[in-house]
Amino acid sequence: MAAGRYAPSPTSDLHVGNLRTAVLAWLFARSTHRAFRLRIEDLDTDRVRAAGGVEARQLADLAALGLVFDGDLVRQSERQSTYAAAVDGLGDRVYECYCTRREIAEAASAPHPGPDGFRPYPGTCRDLTDAQRGERRRRRPGALRIRADGATTTVQDLVAGSVSGIVDDFVLRRGDGVWAYNLAVVVDDLAMGIDQVVRGADLLSSAPRQAWLTEQLGGVPPAYAHVPLVVNPAGVRLAKRDGAVSLADLAARGRDAAWVLRWISESLGLSAPDEPVTLTLLLDRFDPAALPRAETVFDLVD
Ligand code: GLU
Question: Is the distance from the beta carbon of residue 209 to the nearest atom of ligand 1 less than 6 Å?
Answer without folding.
Answer: no
